[in-house]
Amino acid sequence: MADGRDGNRTVDPKLLELLACPLTKGPLAWDPERGELVSRVAKLAYPVRDGIPIMLPSEARVIAIDDAMPPPRLGGSE
Predict the structure, then answer these.
(1) Does 75 have pLDDT greater than 70?
(2) CATH number, domain with residue 50
(3) Is 74 inside a domain boundary?
(4) What is the pTM of this model?
(5) Which helix (H) or strand (E) holds 66?
(6) Do the domain assignments include residue 33?
(7) In the chain, how many H helices and how many E strands?
(8) What pLDDT, in 10s, does the model give residues 24-57?
(9) Which residues lie closer than 8 Å to 55 by C-beta, 6 or more apart?
(10) Cα–Cα 20 to 30 A to 72, which of 13, 40, 64, 78?
């Protein structure tokens, strides 16, 4: 999971494939900036503490739709 140090957080891709949101049973995405596992469907971010994912909905942070999905890209030049 995370290595416990700020700045170089990573998640083992094999572990990420095994984990699922406890509410939706759907996939999770790793957010290295916040050290969280994100369920886009449930709009929840589960914390990872000392390398251990805390997969309890009561511990999860509710995220806004803007945080759950990347903003749409618009065509054209700026």
Answers:
(1) no
(2) 2.20.25.10
(3) no
(4) 0.71
(5) helix 65-68
(6) yes
(7) 2, 5
(8) 999 999 999 999 999 999 999 999 988 889 999 9
(9) 19, 22, 37, 46
(10) 13
Which residue matches tokens 């995370």? 2
Q: Are 23 and 44 in contact (CB under 8 A)?
A: yes
Angstrom distance (rounded) from CA 36 to CA 63: 11
- Domain membership of residue 39 as a residue range: 13-68
Is there a contact between 68 and 38 (Cβ–Cβ < 8 Å)?
Answer: yes
Q: Which single residue is written with the structure tokens 């999971």?
A: 1
**Within-domain flag for 25:** yes
How many domains, in total, are found in the chain?
1
The C-alpha R_g of the chain, in whole angstroms, comes to 14
Largest CA distance in the chain: 44
In a domain, 64, yes or no: yes
**Phi and psi of 9, rounded to 5°?**
-90, 135
